[in-house]
Design brief:
By secondary structure, this protein is of the alpha/beta class. About 50% of the residues lie in helices and about 15% in strands.
Amino acid sequence: MIKAIHIINYKYFFMKPVCKIFSCLLLLIFSMQLDTRAQNDNKIRIIMIGAHPDDCDDDGGGTAAIFAKMGYAVKFVSVTNGDAGHQVIGGAELAKRRFAEAQEAGKRLGVVYDVLDNHDGQLMPTLEVRLQIIKKIREWNADIVIAPRPNDYHPDHRYTGVLVQDAAYMVAVPNIAPETPALKKNPVFLYFQDRFQRPNPFRPDLAIDITSVFDKKISALDAHESQMYEWLPWIGHYEDKVPKDKTERIKWLAETRKQEIKPEVKSALEKWYGKEKAATIKNAEAFEICEYGSQPDEAMIKKLFPMLGK
């Protein structure tokens, strides 16, 4: 009996580490297969990076909705947690509220929404934050990266643009942030549209017809109640214009967030959709190709943005 117990104990002692090693090997193989699938996935992968938990929705929500509807993987990243953007609450309480709003907006658009824990209004283009962005782009295996230009009224917007520019080459350098595998190809980097003229105005290299999903974009913005109906009206001195009724609020939001299609954006729409189709477009989002990252030709742009011309 004692001998049998010794044998059982010996087997248990021997088998435990063997099983552990075997399990680890299976996990490693499974992870490698997932990584290979991600690398070989023909579906376009898009990551939009904004400074605050409503920026991507405002600047690229329509385009994101179209990509998501087509079955492509879209992620929004807010580089700050938005903990300063309110006239009454702030800090952890506001950050928690804005995170919840971002998750709801993501559901409405069909995108993944990440919020980094950097303080709103205090963002700096540091190495630490640059590495956070490099990691996010790599983890998503992005084909397209869209961010603000580095000239804007808000320092967080400017520095988000700088941070993404600084990451544009480094995402493919294996010895930078080596814990996250480097991309095998550099993504195409683009800028969101803005109104700023100096040192140079925004150039619409491509424009997307978002008329069919404009309501969905507005629905996502509606999820950011702390911003659309409270903070922005307060800081902009138009609180009295915000309707109390929920239905009226959404109508008001759609009207106030509707962007005029400027002549240069109209020209871009005509280029990609033709004059006849462009004349019917009521809502659009435009993007400028960044000089950093992959430089796409017209054929590559059509491949990356398959909704163009449709």
